[in-house]
Design brief:
InterPro entries: Amidohydro-rel (IPR006680), Metal_Hydrolase (IPR032466). One of its GO terms (molecular function) is hydrolase activity. The structure is a single chain. This protein is an alpha/beta fold. 50% of the residues lie in helices and 9% in strands. The chain has 17 helices and eight strands. The chain has an eight-stranded parallel beta sheet. The chain is globular and about 70 Å long.
């Protein structure tokens, strides 16, 4: 690997240039700082796979060493030592210690993650750590669920008995109108810079470009029947989910608002084989005026994401969440795969920071390390000049997101 001394300008840019975090989630409040197991900072697993297995990964070993250094612990500090130290720190001090070194200038928040409303600070609360105001990314499935639940709960008709054949078409018409109005209102809101879909978790990324009215009505009836049984409304029926995505893509395209898609890396609630962004090719072609942002490096389908970016003008890739969820070697390999084919004006970075302030720290410092390692190697091998590498870093960390989300910022 090239030394920092050899490429001083590249090193300075990689480790200190201000950045736009194009996808993150709010932090827990001080009162709820222990509401979620801290091991979630290094893995997407749940249950025993999280608490017993994730601490034996290379990702955990690397995070342990970096957090031990942040907390002024010795080189032999263990994961439990790190947890004990963070528990001793006042929460405001922990947040300041973790966020200050990142030089994140602006954060775009998906505040529709489950648990955020109950446990977390508002997105605006985070402005104390950044030089530019935070903005929102609206999670459309949550919006759709809330609208549908409100309509159903307010209705005096029995949606489970099926005795009124007119109920479903009438409900669908009202739901569609309110969903469209809500998405349009968000698109018009200056605080909202984009949308987010978790179709990957619900029914997969093979979003249909069209369907019949009967298909949507049947999906809606299935959704309501399940709601009557389990008393929890969740969009899990493909035709209904796909309709919500298409409605969002339509409005977003007219308003030039990017739509982020969870792709690849996630917990066991998604089906891995349906999480490749390659499944989105149909709707990418059907909505050419809508900017698509493929989140989380699409890992392990990174090359699929780079391919789509190379052949469709409206597709961009985010190289996030792999920091700190996979090993350092893996992170560098993913970044190399992104750069194999993806135009460098279409690459953005994020922490996918959530719950814990240290997630922002690790997501930033590890990304900066990987950028330098990979680009210094490319300069050394003669694939590009140091000046070109510096420009790539500035674009990936700041300028691409600033342009794509129409933030209107200057690096500070």
């Amino acid at each position: 690997m090239a030394s920092a001394a050899k490429y001083t300008t590249l090193h300075e840019t990689c480790f200190n240039y201000p950045c736009v975090d194009n996808h993150a989630h709010p932090l827990l409040t001080a009162a709820n700082r222990d509401a979620v197991d801290f091991e979630g900072i290094i893995a997407e697993a749940t249950g025993p796979a999280l608490l017993e297995d994730s601490v034996h990964t290379l990702a955990c070993f690397k995070a342990t060493a970096q957090l031990a250094k942040l907390f002024n612990l010795g080189p032999d500090a263990t994961w439990n030592d790190v947890k004990a130290k963070r528990a001793q720190l006042p929460y405001d001090e922990l947040c300041e210690l973790s966020l200050k070194p990142t030089n994140i200038q602006c954060i775009l928040f998906d505040d529709g993650l489950g648990g955020v409303e109950e446990w977390c600070e508002s997105y605006k609360w985070h402005d104390r750590f950044t030089k530019s105001a935070s903005k929102r990314i609206v999670r459309v499935e949550v919006v759709a669920q809330d609208i549908l639940k409100t309509l159903v709960d307010a209705s005096s008709l029995s949606y489970s008995s099926g005795t009124d054949p007119a109920y479903i078409p009438t409900l669908l018409e009202t739901f569609a109108a309110k969903l469209t109005a809500s998405i349009q209102a968000s698109a018009d809101d200056p605080e909202v810079v984009g949308f987010k879909s978790v179709a990957c978790y619900r029914t997969g990324l093979d979003v249909a470009t069209s369907c019949t009215q009967e298909d949507i009505e049947a999906a809606l009836a299935s959704c309501l029947s399940r709601y009557a049984t389990i008393s929890k409304l969740r969009l899990d029926d493909k035709h209904l989910n796909d309709y919500v995505v298409r409605a969002t893509l339509e409005i977003a395209g007219k308003c030039n608002k990017p739509v982020q898609f969870h792709t690849g890396l996630g917990d066991n609630d998604l089906t891995l084989t349906r999480s490749s962004p390659a499944h989105l090719q149909g709707v990418i072609k059907a909505f050419p005026n809508t900017p698509f942002v493929l989140l989380h490096s699409s890992y392990p389908y990174t090359r699929d994401a780079g391919y789509l970016c190379s052949v469709y003008r409206n597709v961009y890739v985010d190289f996030g969440e792999i920091f700190p969820f996979i090993s350092g070697t893996g992170q560098r390999a993913v970044l190399r795969q992104v750069l194999e084919l993806c135009p460098t004006n279409k690459i953005m970075w994020s922490t996918d920071g959530h719950w814990w302030p240290e997630s922002y720290y690790l997501g930033t410092v590890q990304a900066r390390e990987a950028l330098y390692a990979v680009l210094a190697e490319s300069v050394r091998d003669g694939d590009l000049t140091e000046q070109q590498a510096v420009g790539m870093v500035k674009n990936a960390l700041f300028h691409n997101a600033n342009r794509i989300y129409s933030l209107g910022l200057s690096p500070l």
